[in-house]
Design brief:
About 75% of the residues lie in helices and about 0% in strands. The protein is mostly helical and about 120 residues long. It has one domain. Helix 1 packs antiparallel against helix 3. The two termini are about 15 Å apart.
């Protein structure tokens, strides 16, 4: 199941990173909707997502040693949902539903996969 999580990361991140690399406006609007393109922010987000993409590629080969990549995703995506998406949704503001939906999916599913697999347990 760890490999499946890493494969899903790749299915999500390859088109997202490709859009960010090839879109004239830096791709933030395509991904985040009405977000303005701030080059430093775009490059920070792109760098993080490319790092997760590369780690997920490696996770297909070595899933157990790379399980912390999934944990980091749970943490930062949970924070984004709680600190940005939830307040914006409650205020009636527009949300980037593609990103929000993928974040909700990951925050709900990755903990279950980690709980079942227990990759931190050498006996599992």
């Amino acid at each position: 199941m760890l490999r499946a999580a890493f494969a899903i990361n790749l299915l999500i991140l390859v088109p997202v990173c490709a859009t960010m690399l090839t879109a004239r406006d830096g791709g933030l609007r395509a991904i985040f909707g009405s977000a303005s393109d701030v080059p430093a922010v775009r490059l920070m987000v792109l760098s993080m997502w490319l790092a997760i993409l590369l780690a997920s590629l490696a996770g297909l080969v070595w899933p157990r040693p790379l399980w912390p990549v999934l944990a980091i995703q749970i943490i930062y995506k949970s924070l984004w949902l709680v600190l940005f998406a939830w307040p914006a949704w409650r205020a009636g503001e527009a949300l980037p539903w593609g990103v929000t939906g993928s974040f909700i999916f990951i925050v709900l599913v990755w903990p279950l996969i980690l709980w079942v697999e227990q990759p931190w347990n050498s006996e599992a």
